[in-house]
Amino acid sequence: MWLLSTDRAELRFFNGPLDVSEGFAILSHRWDDHEQTFEDVQALRLQCKADGTNPRKLVCTKIRESCKLAEKHGHKWLWIDTCCIDKRSSVELSEAVNSMFRYYSLSNICYAYLRDVPARSDEGWELKFKQSVWHDRAWTLQELIAPKLLLFVSSKWTSLGTKAEHAELINSITTVPAEVLCLEQDISEISIYDRMVWAAARRATKVEDEAYSLMGIFGINMPILYGEGQHAFYRLQEEIMKTSTDTSLFAWGGWNNFRTPTASRSPSPQAESAGPDYCSIHEDSGHYLLAPSPIVFNARRPGIRFHVRITFTFSAERTVKLTLFCSGWLRYWQHVD
User: For residue range 119-175, what is the model confidence (pLDDT) as tens digits?
Assistant: First the structure.
């Protein structure tokens, strides 16, 4: 685990988060078009070593202001995903992605930088808070839930308040229960379906990150294989099935809002005969029970959707036996004693 020193923005390696005796702060943010990387920060360190300049003066504004804020609050170390992972190493990248939820949960404080939200003293800041792109990013879901203490900061790096303070407001934006945000309820007590709903409206630049960003939410670890595409989300669900008996995993819907790349191929005979409502999500995929993406866990869809075929059988006693062949999904169900 690489951490930045908050006084100089220099990287130092630790074996793990528990080896940082003073603890560490962590940053949550929406990536910009250009971010300074691990290599960039290391190059600045070598450059400044020669002339005695403090590297913190030369790093980008986001890294510099994060370090200054963490130092102001008494934290010596800071983790930022853009520059604290050596992405040239596939082993290090896989370890970091699998450990990210744990990093955020063990941090002393998480700063959620909202670049599109003005200071709290500005008129209309709450509306801008609701509309922030930070709420749309796949990775920020675990970054919202995992930390014990999360402080939102404005575009001017001033405090906007904590997630506990704004729990009800955040719930209205994200559907994550206020009890979870206030650490009064563990996410393991929330159904798989409802946790998937939290992610349904979020987007990732890489399709694989739709799955990788949810590993911590479901307590899952698995190899990171960028390039596998949609298969990453199937693997996530297969890993969930190994550790959970919650059948709400299969309660996905939203067929009309999702089409895989296979939908651009020539339609199958089944599709041609069934007409425009035919669901082609799983043609040739071999994953008929599993959802193709978090997008299809849609909380607004109808609770029940059935296709029914009825067969009448007349017996010698002149009674009628009615057999229903049903296919479809219940939104989800719970057994209550």
Answer: 999 999 999 999 999 999 999 999 999 999 999 999 999 999 999 999 999 999 999
In a domain, 250, yes or no: no
- Provide the 10 A C-beta neighbour count for residue 235: 18
Tell me if 161 is assigned to some domain: yes
Give yes or no for a contact between 307 and 327, defined as CB atoms under 8 angstroms apart: yes
Contacts of 271 (CB under 8 A, 6+ apart): 278, 280, 283
Tally of domains within the chain = 1
> Is residue 109 in some structural domain?
yes
**Per-residue pLDDT reduced to its tens digit, 304-337:** 444 445 555 556 665 555 555 444 444 444 433 4
Exposed / middle / buried, residue 62 (Cβ in 10 Å: 0-12, 13-18, 19+):
buried
Residue type, 217: I
- The span from the CA of 187 to the CA of 244, in Å, is 13
Q: How many Å apart are CA 324 and CA 335, to the nearest integer?
A: 23
CA dist 146 → 28, 43, 186 (Å): 11, 32, 10
Contacts of 178 (CB under 8 A, 6+ apart): 167, 168, 170, 171
